[in-house]
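thought: fold this chain, then report.
action: predict
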Amino acid sequence: MYELVLVMRARSVFYLFLGCIFSLSAFADELDKRVVGIVKVSKATVQNRALPDSRYIVDFYDLGTVVELDHCDRYDWCKLKENNLYISKASLGVMSFISEPLKNLNETNQPQYITKPKENNYIEQCIRLKHINLDENDILDSEVQEKLFTPYYDKCLSSETIKSFLSAISQYYIGKGYITTKPYLKEQNILDGQIEISVSKGLIEDIIDSNTSKTNNKIKTAFFLQKNNILNLRNLETSLEMINRVPSTDATFEIKPGSKYGSSIVAINSKETFPLHLTIGATGEKNIYDDNLYLTAEVSLDNPLKINDILTFRSNGSGIQQDYQSSSGNELNYSFPISSYLLEFIWFDFLYKQRVLGLNDSYISEGKTVGATLKVSKILFRNQSNKLKLSLSILHKNTKNYFSDELIEISSYKSTLGQIDLTHTYVKNWGQLISTYSFHRGTDWFGARNDSYFTGDIKEKLQFTKYTLSENLYYYLPDNSYQVNSNLYIQYSDDLLYDNNKLRVGSYYTVRGYESSYYGDTGAYLKNDLIKTFRVNVSPAYLETISPFIGVDYGYVSCQDSNKPACGELIGSAVGFKTDSKMINTDFTLSRAITKVENLDIETLFRFNANLKF
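observation:
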């Protein structure tokens, strides 16, 4: 048995003698009944009977000797741990006692009372703490030890001092997630001011499924290399998050005592539902009678390889292929975790077709883009309020454009983009803030077109550099039915970018109320909503909540020679409501521009979206 935190209680004063301090530190573990003491007299008698009789003296302990005690009785004696020997309580300064009478008192022929020995008169002096030696360096490095221990150096050793620095060590371990690792005092002599602290490292003996008492592949991948290592609560939480990323899985863990002292068994309790998911959606814009709905479909399979993996296929396109334009796209996504890492592979294609009217005829402009992304993410740090994640990804795509079946060479090329994301999630009782800092760099890897391909006046770059910042705030007011959502996005680049790398501002996803967008290499937008949620519970499957909202958005695109006059400021507004339930969620939005765009009238736009989940 063990306990997660070493519990210590003090109730005695530190005694001093002959230029030295004599102290007892008793630290009781509620599970193993451990008491540690320090001898406070120059010569403490050790006896084989708990009686005030010199005939039973078998040894002497020197001043400052640390001993481990089994228990102390209510009278005058303490029994040494793992020895049938006793030491007088009068020779120990006691912080606390475990109330348990000595069993062998009844075995003697003496009366059932104890004559209290005469107390000695001690000269009070001070042993100053010079150094604390910790027998581990895996968790507490020298810099941390110096920070923790320096405030205690040169202080008189007392029960309170020992209690304080042991508590500081324990709290540091707990704060770092090492909840089963604990410090304790060795048997030793502290007369020279040196204290030896041992550390009981709580190891993970095994990680099992609570239903089968065995380890499966889901556990092996999520808790990779944690078995037989020091138990860390933060690592366990990260691994559990990797299991729970699968929508059909709801898992928790329980820490149980292992078969060895200080070891633990982590038992995973998991509930699983049907692993196949289907979502069908429709989006209409401009008016409620839109006969060219944009349709989406998504099929997802959980755990196809039983390693907490997810396989997803998405498809989208216009409901009716109009004469003048149509578009469609497909995406295949597969991801799986290993410990705190997440590996993701995405394949996609996008097709468009547009009819261009000429003076005497019409022409077809069409194109296709095929690409793939490989992404690796790792959770670097987490605690109760913070999580820090680093992601590295590389995107390669091949774009081909045609006009009347003739390849347009200038706009047909391969490109490769590397990206680094650092995402910080901050969670408090008022909500959460998610910040993502990204670095984007175009390269000529994998046969991508190099900027030296063009020697003319083309200034756009494929080997560009840009920086982006995304801030998403979800803030709950004291009345939690009210929520404020704010999304800030900033992009900056010194390079002249191709259209698909520019920032576009003026749409449902950026600044609402506009059909066309401003675009540029540098810009930003801020999208804000105030939401009120009503829990109607008409039917959990079809209508559980209704959330009216009102929003105001702001956007700005920096003006350059390449994007005039499609630059400047945009301000838009929106009002609407959303519904949510187990099977259906909807979004109905009316939006209107506040800032007038040149040559365009301000009008009210309508948009709706509905998704059916199976």
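thought: worth noting. The radius of gyration is 36 Å.
final: tokens above.
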